[in-house]
Amino acid sequence: xxxxxxxxxxxxxxxxxxxxxxxxxxxxxxxxxxxxxxxxxxxxxxxxxxxxxxxxxxxxxxxxxxxxxxxxxxxxxxxxxxxxxxxxxxxxxxxxxxxxxxxxxxxxxxxxxxxxxxxxxxxxxxxxxxxxxxxxxxxxxxxxxxxxxxxxxxxxxxxxxxxxxxxxxxxxxxxxxxxxxxxxxxxxxxxxxxxxxxxxxxxxxxxxxxxxxxxxxxxxxxxxxxxxxxxxxxxxxxxxxxxxxxxxxxxxxxxxxxxxxxxxxxxxxxxxxxxxxxxxxxxxxxxx
Length: 288
Hints:
membrane; CPBP family intramembrane metalloprotease; mainly alpha
């Protein structure tokens, strides 16, 4: 029998794998952004297209780093970024994200709290589009690709869902105009939904697409505040007013009761469809 050394035990420990994975991917993303940004400063590209280019390159860099590093470290095929079914997962995920955000805004419209002030040029969506896909890729790799996946191996799908939902919500509490309630909203709606999406598809393209579409529709199309951050340019300049439970107030539509309801319903459907894909905690696994 092959003896496992103390060093191997430490390197193979879930916490070590999580910390190293987060560190490597975080460094890759930041370095790619900084280096690309400095190089693009020497070009004559418009600022918006420079940011778009920087977003594409840094997002690609973190995906490739994730694949290369974990393939070597964990000695396995990185199936969560498999090209098999990629078009289906991206289209389906995008459709779900668009639908859920549109339903959330529709409730605000029904309450007479949504007013379109102006319709802007199509170029206005470049910045929110860039932010939406960059954030979706980066956050899904860190939260679902690394933390959720590794925790799930030991503690099972349900506990991993709970832990990553808490982490995801807590990370958003640090945002401007955020409260414990808004962080709880994000944890419940997005934390559970993206985790359920990963379980259903067993790849990251699906939750990335949902995450991207949700954020892009919110900030890039409907002109709403996203996670308490400042408004970006958008296709529609809008004015959202009314009851904070319906509008989300200064945090945006993510902090609304209807967002929680719609996203929780979607999560339940995905989990029901994923009954045969759920992972049991280590103490319930068959040891025979």
